[in-house]
Amino acid sequence: MRKNSLSFQIILRVLLFCIVLGGVIFAIYYYYSRTTIEKTTRENAINLANNTIFRIEEVIRPSEKLPENLAWMIETGALPKDSIQSFLKKLVKNNPEIYASAIAFEPGMFSEEKQAYAPYAYKRGNEIETTDLWSPAYNYFLMDWYQIPALLKTPYWTEPYYDEGGGEALMTTYSVPFYVNENSKKIFGGIITIDVSLDWLTDIVNEVKIFDTGYAFLISRNGVYVTHPSRNFIMNETIFTRAKDQEQPELRKIGRDMIQGVSNLSEITLKDRGHVWVYHRQLPSTKWSLGVVYPHREMYASLRTLNFIILLLSALGLSLLTFFTIRIINWQISPLTKFAKSARIIAEGNFDAPLPVIEANEEMKELHDSFAFMQKELASYIVNLKETTSAKEKIESELRIAREIQMGMIPHIFPPFPNLPEIDLYASLESAKEVGGDLYDFFLIDERHLCLAIGDVSGKGVPASLFMAVTRTLLRSVADKNRSTAEIVRSMNKTLAINNESNMFVTFFVAVMDIQTGELRFCNAGHNPPVLIKNKKEVSFFNITKAIPIGLFEDFDYTEERIQLETGDQLFFYTDGLTEAEDARENLLGEELLLDVIRKNADATPKKLIESVIQAVAQHVAGHPQSDDLTMMSISYFGNIGKNA
Amino acid sequence: MKSGGLSKIGLVVSLLILLNYFSAGAQGEKITFTPHWIPQAQFAGYYAALDQGFYKNAGIDVEIIHLTANISSFEFLKNGQALVVSSFLMDAVKQRAAGIPLVNIAQFSQHSALMIVTKKESGIDEAKELNNKKLGIWSSGFDDIPLAFMREKKYNIELVRILNTVNLFLMGGVDALTVMYYNEYDQIINSGVDEEELNTFFFSDYGFDIPEDGLYCLEETLHKKKEALQKFVTATMHGWRFAEQNREYTVDLVVEEMNKAHLPNNKAHQRWMLDKILELQKPGNKNVKRGHLLEQDYQRALKIFESSNSEYNKEALLFETFYQPLLQE
Q1: Are residues B291 and B318 in the same domain?
Q2: A107 at the B interface (CB within 8 A)?
Q3: Domain locations in chain A?
Q4: In this predicted model, what pLDDT tens digit does every residue of B75-120 receive, in sequence order?
Q5: In chain B, which residues have their Cβ closer than 8 Å to the Cβ of A223?
């Protein structure tokens, strides 16, 4: 497919639009999916943490009640001192979640003589053993489980510890201060403890599964890991040593929030686990803090899979779209190529070139119809053109013949009278059209008299030429040496004016020259005055009566005039086609310019003079097409000298 | 509970096989050494010397026997369990004054790491504000300097004896806590308290810059095994130099030791401790060579001792008799 082809352009635009549209839809879909996932994950994280904490608290809360109740029993004297050991034994036996329990007395509080006494019941296998915790090597007054609640006078969950002696398990101790009434005064009596194994707690937290690698973890009040998927963290690391080790101050920030009891959802990129979400909440009882970790990657794993599928489907869809668009467009516009071929064939002249068959495309049908119409119109036009052309050719050939006939009517052999040395004559007629309405003529009426005539029929073309032929024939028939030129004109006028339906007329100048004397009689019927060249230098128009052209009024009275020519004089006759020759800017040649040209060539022979004038006209019009017939005639009179010589 | 923490390890000693028994019978003279605390980076130089074979190469067979917080290393010296022990200078002075014929054969620490830490929220911003406040202090000793400080300043401070955790302080049971900069101070930080939230009072800033960790043996042992002891001291010095140049590797050694003793541990804390211990070994502005005891420091320690013990055998506590340097550097 060529780059500039219509189908390529359409497909490119369709594809671009589809991609942009798809991209926008995808972006919106992705944004909302992400937001939904984030919202769901947030809710899940909170629910998960809350559920887990609830499950832990379900065990811890009832356990807390045991030492608290025991404290109340001692305070109220409900528990006799001698049955303390057996009571503790029962308590440990009946509460499977408790590993051991102790009542540690302040110095002298159990009895005056006992500076330290801490009866302690603990599980050993299936048995419950009792002992006194106190020994010189085990000064319980300095132990956290005793010292901290004793000083703070408040219950205290110890930091978790690994009990290697008996429980062989991760333990924590819950310590509750108790008081005794002495002389109706409440005096601090010591600490009651229960030891709780954390195995069940570890199990609960470890049961939390989040995607593939997400997890829950628990840290103590000091940030020590109590549970964590990395087992070597437990009891070794605090969240703060991890933060220091990994150089991640933001982890320390989360840790501080956790131990300070802040519930929050934080985002962090752990160097060993990547980008994760951490939601944390404090356990109300122990003040430890649970964190649930959502790996970012896995949170969006389903979205990524979906994205992949969507992108894959989009790519497939686009490919199919491209494929079918190409097919459809090519199918739809394939007639265009055929039309182009047909057009070329038609252009070569074969109007019957077959057009492509269009079935279901309205635009193409229209094009087809237009083509068919064009074919039909062209064919009929060409037929018309052929007819017109042949008619025109016929007319042209007839005109050509008419011209030959017309030209045959005027003398065109020069010099015309080689045996008359008295005169030298030359004439020229150039029709603007094939046939023209100008005429000139000269003939000898007898041995002494030469008749000269020049005329210009109104209008042009065939009518003018016919009128000219009539005029010329009339002249030849009425010219008579006994008649004056005026009579000749009158006679011609009368004849032409009768039956002149088309109101044509002709300006006409006729002269009869006496070759021997040089006398020139002439009559002018509305024609341009001829030019008289005296002595080969003085040039002037005839000063004559113009009168009206012949053929208009049958009774018009024309008059004859006469001048005497001297030896060497020359006459120049012309029609208005000469003085009115136009250049491209419609400037006429004019009479002055004509006189100038004649003056410059005053000593030229008639032929030379006429050629010079023709040249001057050509210069003046500079290629502008000739609009009127151009006719000139010139005669030199040499008198009797020529004959004598 | 009854066996929690260090008490359990009390009598458990961690035995380290230091010699390659199939190497051609080069079993040298046996030296048992007991550091004055549980395995930690405080004793990294000994572990490094052992690991790198510095002792073996010197032709001695060194065994490190650890004790617990509850017993003094001098007990091991007295009952013959250890030929050489490490201890604080102040404790050694007290022991010699009490008639134990021990001598200092090397002094690795040159400065005091002892300090008092308070939470800023307690409002104790100056040392004098410790007056009439509760101060947590170890029950196992190491209290001579704080007590001397209190006497000198005439502060009335309520002492609360503690074992070895910082929990009481974290829980607000005491206003201030005596700590070692290289150990408990970092534990507090590692429990989520920021340094900016703490005020610190270094005893060294109050004229109590008493050196701490040194090596001790009985006079009799010095006479009998001077050459072996000399090798021990020199190889140990190499061990410290190695530790200084290979801190990460040494921290791994320490962690290994702690794991053997089933002690909770982490690298972040041991790294901190190693850095601080090595810092304490540098003489700084003191005119003394590494590994040696400066007489002025000894006299200052003696003065502190005198401030609470007016009558003692002055002859026994002459610097020349107390200090028998074996380090040939």
Answers
A1: yes
A2: no
A3: 6-58+208-302, 79-200, 362-396, 410-644
A4: 999 999 999 999 999 999 999 999 999 999 999 999 999 999 999 9
A5: 190-192
